[in-house]
Amino acid sequence: MGSMxxxxxxxxxxxxxxxxxxxxxxVGTGDDAAITVPGGAxxxxxxxxxxxxxxxxxxxxxRQIGAKALATxxxxxxxxxxxPGEAYTVLxxxxxxxxxxxxxxxxxxxxxAAASGIALAGGxxxxxxALSLAVTVVGHAPDADRLVTRAGARxxxxxxxxxxxxxxxxxxxxxxxxxxxxxxxxRAEPLLARQLxxxxxxxxxxxxxxxxxxAMIDISDGLGGDAGHLAAAGGVGLRIEAESVxxxxxxxxxxxxxxxDPLELAIGGGEDYELLAALPAAxxxxxxxxxxxxxxxxxxxxxxxxxxxEIRRLGGQALFVGGFDQLD
Amino acid sequence: MGSMxxxxxxxxxxxxxxxxxxxxxxVGTGDDAAITVPGGAxxxxxxxxxxxxxxxxxxxxxRQIGAKALATxxxxxxxxxxxPGEAYTVLxxxxxxxxxxxxxxxxxxxxxAAASGIALAGGxxxxxxALSLAVTVVGHAPDADRLVTRAGARxxxxxxxxxxxxxxxxxxxxxxxxxxxxxxxxRAEPLLARQLxxxxxxxxxxxxxxxxxxAMIDISDGLGGDAGHLAAAGGVGLRIEAESVxxxxxxxxxxxxxxxDPLELAIGGGEDYELLAALPAAxxxxxxxxxxxxxxxxxxxxxxxxxxxEIRRLGGQALFVGGFDQLD
Lengths: 328, 328
Hints:
The structure is a homodimer of 328-residue chains.
Chain A: H1 6-16, E1 25-27, E2 34-36, E3 41-50, H2 62-80, E4 83-93, H3 99-116, E5 119-127, E6 132-141, E7 158-162, H4 167-176, H5 189-196, H6 202-210, E8 215-218, H7 223-234, E9 237-241, H8 251-257, H9 262-268, E10 275-279, H10 286-293, E11 297-304, E12 308-312, E13 318-322
Helix pairs in contact in A: 1-3, 2-3, 2-6, 4-5, 4-8, 6-10
């Protein structure tokens, strides 16, 4: 940690933090533990990112790295339909990261916390050979039945998707080829933002849960893989029509630029952090759902008897067949 | 992660895990988040250890490293007087750590989880340049008032300590000089165990909370430093009689062997994970407390008006004066 001690940095970090406040948090940072009074059910998830594995300081700013660590953790809360409650972070600080740089990273965390209404309730700070951030997020619901797991999809259910896919993978392609100058084009900006500053679909998750979603997952590994998790967890099969999957504007052009199929970016690319949910097909009102979700909601397929995932073009050609694993 | 993918390792990890069960846990590992129904107040703490910073694979077995990571996190639950609930772990796996070695580390976690009654409810696994473990632990109490923070000590309160100090620091000295052969002496074993396999004082923490402890902390940084945190958090001073501080058997001999003062190991050494608590002095029944705490409880001083910590010998000589910082 260079010439700066952990204590000194912790002191500056705490000064910088907004007061952690929500109706459930009684004691935040600075004691042996934070104290909360949940009052219902909680959803808890941990995620870690490590430099050189999940991000690269040459391609993302420290603010973006901090923001993305919390945003992607919050995406798990969205996928449960939970209301964001508290976050606990462990920051691993490498020798070449100065105090001001730590605070930039923290600024990213603080921005996302403020935007999502989650309280930064505790944390730990340690020296580390590589920059790393582990984030534990806790979300809340009035009771456990209001939280939506990956299991529970039933044959006949409609499969819906929030927003658009492929943007994050297109952004990653642009970053990987940033020497070519493509990433500086104005049209590239929304794709880069999708990759570097993902937005957890918290309102959409709660809206889908309220609308009776029986199973839900966030798209972090790509539609193919995550649909596979949903199928495996529910003991059902999923059929998805490729043409109905909304692709983010600009992504097809980027895909073609690098000789890739736009649908491949959507199905295999990942990191879009949209939500995939199974709901009863009867009375499905996509317009009302979209209004509550504050993002477009598209029906892309259905739940069927069987197992695994098939993503087919209208002509019948299978683009993706898989999803039999049991892992997240 | 060598030739092994994260998915394959995760699968083996999950097979190895005992079913995570407690009366509050509804959904454990394998979904976007774990689901619990806390039913009262929760205490949440995060801790991380990193190879080369907090431990060394040459001095501790992987089982011991895994066990210590969870045990020290649980010590924070002990210090709150909380009942252990759920743990969430992030394992950072370096290139030279094989699958079997990951599972050894996990065995240590599982042992401590079983012994303490905490459910391993979730986690993440990532490649990392150095072996690291971040642990989030959640403890429970019927309501927030039953959890004991660092603040709350009042002038006139008795200051009590569980167990004995200095053993972990003596064990560390032996490990640091293990080439000399001292660490292989039979008398060294309890000191090495104290350093490598600390035991969280969970029953003692609950007993002290039930006995009306107004402030409590675990001794991770040494009695001097941690007493300082308690003093600062409560806006009070602490006076400790050096001769009343119980020193672990064998530690004085080790201290003398390396030209150190035994009390120095107890006051500055840390990692003993005993509990320091302030309780109303009236009606203090140390024998009843010890029976409930399942460990000796010793009165070592008192809370006074003022600030900071003084640890004095009977003659009046101050051994340690400090503890004015506000940090944990």
